[in-house]
Amino acid sequence: MTDAVYFFVRVNHQVVSCPVLIMAGVDSNGHRKILGADNTFEKSYQSYKNHLNRLQERGLKQVDLTISDDHKGLLGAQQEIFTHTPHQRCICHFMRNVLSYVPYKGKANLAGYLKQVYNSPNQEMATTVAKMIAQK
C-alpha cells in the first residue's frame, strides 16, 4: 500500500503543507510493516519514483501487488519500478470518489451497498449486489 500524508513543516521561515510518502507492506507471516517514508515537497511522478528507488536500494526485492489511490504519478512510477506487478485501486479512495457524485442524503445508503459488494463471500454475490446498485 502506498499513499501520502500531509504535515505542516517550516521551510525558509514559512509553514507549508508537505506530503510524506509512505509505503506499507505485508510480510510472508501476514504482519504489516512500514517499508519506507520520505519527505517531499509534492506528490509527483518523480517524487514517487525517487521513493520507490530508495526502497529498492534498501533491499526491497519483490512486490506481488501494489495498492494505492489513482494518482497518475504514483501509478506511473509503480509500473516503471515494479514492472509487471498487478495494481489494485484502494477501496477507501474508490468509495470516496464514487460517493462524491452522490447527493448527501444518498451517501450512507450507497456506502452500505458498496460495503456489501466488498464484503461478499464470493464473486457471484458481489455481482448480484453490484447489479442491484446499478438498477437503483
Q: Which band does the percent of strand residues land in?
A: 25-35%
What is the ordering of alpha helices and beta strands? EEEHEHEHHH
Shape: globular
What is the SS-derived class?
A: alpha+beta
Tell me the CATH topology of the largest domain.
Nucleotidyltransferase, domain 5
Cα end-to-end separation: 32 Å
Strand segment count: 5
Taking pLDDT < 50 over at least 5 consecutive residues as the criterion, the unreliable ranges are: none
CATH class of the largest domain: Alpha Beta
Instruction: Kindly report the average pLDDT value.
Output: 92
User: Strand order across the biggest sheet?
Assistant: 1-2-3
Oligomeric state as shown: single chain
Compute the number of structural domains.
Answer: 2
Rounded Rg: 18 Å
Helix content: 40-55%
Q: Total number of helical segments?
A: 5
Give the second-level CATH assignment, the architecture of the largest domain: 2-Layer Sandwich
Major beta-sheet overview: 3 strands, antiparallel
Write the layout of secondary structure elements.
Elements (H helix, E strand, L loop, with lengths): L1 E10 L2 E13 L5 E8 L5 H13 L8 E3 L3 H10 L5 E3 L1 H9 L4 H15 L4 H13 L1
Helix pairs in contact: 1-2, 4-5
Observed structural traits:
5 helices, 136 residues, alpha+beta, 44% helix, three-stranded antiparallel sheet, Nucleotidyltransferase, domain 5, two-stranded parallel ribbon, single chain, 5 strands, 2 domains
